[in-house]
């Protein structure tokens, strides 16, 4: 009942309640992002959703306009506190996770859930092995098991295994634990950036992840 009905009802209810507060944040943060380099306030990126459907995930732009795409060796997106692509306001909204707040719109649209596996890039689908594609059985989340307990400290493949663990143990109680653990992690700003993996550059450009 919770997994197939109540979870979606709670997502929609909480997202609608939070929406006015997000709009207030946007009024203050939006101009700072724009006047940093006169670029777009938002960064929209294609992501894998439930059952492998591709959707546009919304974020506040944290990188300089037309920054190059840099990946870790495992194919995941590069994330470093010293990333030269980050703007000054971008570094702040990354640390505070404010860059993720536009995903309230994704929740209302039905693309995402508040709690769930973080969505991968569409090309990552080809890199799944064995049962790893099971992470697509549920809607991706704004936060999840990995973000609450590990943030950016573990490799991508290990995060997928944790996502499958979450799916197998999905319950209202687990979601509540993840929700409050995420709040604690964000307030403490723990493990926001990862420095342990070497990055590779690709020829693509992005507007900030």
Could you estimate the helical fraction of the residues in percent? 40-55%
Number of strands: 6
Low-confidence stretches: 193-209
The strand line-up of the biggest sheet is 1-2
Mean pLDDT: 86
End-to-end distance: 35 Å
Determine the strand fraction and express it as a percent band: 15-25%
Q: Compute the gyration radius: what is it?
A: 16 Å
Description:
This protein is of the alpha+beta class and 209 residues long. It has one domain (2-206). It has helices at 2-37, 88-95, 103-109, 145-149, 156-168, 172-188; strands at 42-48, 54-60, 67-72, 113-115, 141-143, 199-206. Helix 1 (2-37) packs antiparallel against helix 3 (103-109). The longest helix is centred in the first third of the chain and has 36 residues, at 2-37. It is globular, with a radius of gyration of 16 Å. The model is unreliable at 193-209 (pLDDT under 50).
């Amino acid at each position: 009942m919770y997994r197939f009905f109540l979870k979606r009802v709670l997502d929609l209810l909480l997202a609608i309640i939070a929406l006015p507060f997000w709009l207030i944040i946007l009024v203050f943060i939006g101009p700072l992002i724009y006047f940093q380099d006169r670029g777009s306030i938002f960064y929209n990126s294609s992501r894998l959703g439930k059952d492998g459907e591709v959707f546009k995930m919304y974020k506040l732009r944290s990188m300089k306009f037309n920054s190059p795409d840099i990946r870790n060796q495992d194919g995941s997106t590069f994330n470093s506190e010293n990333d030269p692509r980050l703007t000054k306001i971008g570094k702040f909204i990354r640390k505070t996770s404010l860059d993720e707040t536009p995903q309230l719109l994704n929740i209302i649209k039905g693309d995402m859930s508040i709690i769930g596996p973080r969505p991968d890039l569409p090309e990552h689908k080809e890199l799944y092995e064995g049962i790893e594609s099971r992470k697509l059985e549920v809607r991706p989340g704004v936060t999840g098991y990995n973000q609450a307990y590990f943030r950016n400290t573990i490799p991508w493949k290990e995060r997928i295994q944790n996502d499958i663990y979450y799916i197998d143990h999905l319950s209202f109680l687990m979601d509540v634990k993840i929700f409050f653990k995420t709040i604690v992690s964000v307030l403490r700003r723990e493990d926001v950036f990862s420095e342990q993996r070497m990055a590779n550059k690709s020829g693509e450009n992005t507007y900030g992840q």
